């Protein structure tokens, strides 16, 4: 099910910029500042690491706890990516090789309508097989992006350092669990 869509931004706007202005980002930040330390969203390498937003670890070596964390992170995110693939296969106007030849507002309304119709199809089990032709959301965030938002200036409240600390705690917990 699609639970949230924001079609206010054109496709050229970076995911991290949309994240910075999102209600969920503000909500999770507030919860974190209020002491909630056990809730995370998963983002690909295009998002900034924050204590409430876990991203992959770049440039990891094989067979390390960090590589295991990345594998679990990516496999978990792939559930969402497969959902995007199904949505785009069901409504081909959403595919990257298609262009909605309408105003930005009208295009946004079409995207919202596709999300609602997708959910209706899910509710009524109107499922069918869709061919995957490689137009899913970006799944290639393994560990190769050298201009990661982690490298941006550390904010004054040091959320990047806290995010790194929390992510390392998760890596350590996973490494202990597999021993």
TrEMBL record:
Pfam families from the UniProt entry: DDE_Tnp_4
Compartments where found: Nucleus
Chief location category: nucleus
Domain (DDE Tnp4): residue spans on this chain: 2-119
Record key words, sorted: Hydrolase, Metal-binding, Nuclease, Nucleus
GO cellular component, one term: nucleus
InterPro entries membership: HARBI1-like, HARBI1_dom
Cofactor(s) it depends on: a divalent metal cation
Molecular function per GO: hydrolase activity; metal ion binding; nuclease activity
Tree of life domain: Eukaryota
Protein family per UniProt: Belongs to the HARBI1 family.
UniProt protein name: DDE Tnp4 domain-containing protein
């Amino acid at each position: 099910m699609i639970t949230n869509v924001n079609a206010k931004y054109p496709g050229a706007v970076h995911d991290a910029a949309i994240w910075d202005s999102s209600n969920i980002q503000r909500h999770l930040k507030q919860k974190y500042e209020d002491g909630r330390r056990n809730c995370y969203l998963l983002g690909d390498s295009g998002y900034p690491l924050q204590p409430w937003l876990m991203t992959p670890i770049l440039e990891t070596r094989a067979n390390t706890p960090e590589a295991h964390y990345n594998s679990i992170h990516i496999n978990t995110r792939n559930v969402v990516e497969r959902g995007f693939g199904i949505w785009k296969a069901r409504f081909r106007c959403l595919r990257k090789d298609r262009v909605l030849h309408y105003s930005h507002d009208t295009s946004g309304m079409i995207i919202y309508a596709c999300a609602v119709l997708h959910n209706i199809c899910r509710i009524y089990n109107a499922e069918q097989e869709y061919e995957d032709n490689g137009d899913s959301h970006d799944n290639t965030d393994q560990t190769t992006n050298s201009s990661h938002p982690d490298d941006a200036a550390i904010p004054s409240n040091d959320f990047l350092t806290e995010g790194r600390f929390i992510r390392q705690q998760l890596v350590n917990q996973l490494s202990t669990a597999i021993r």
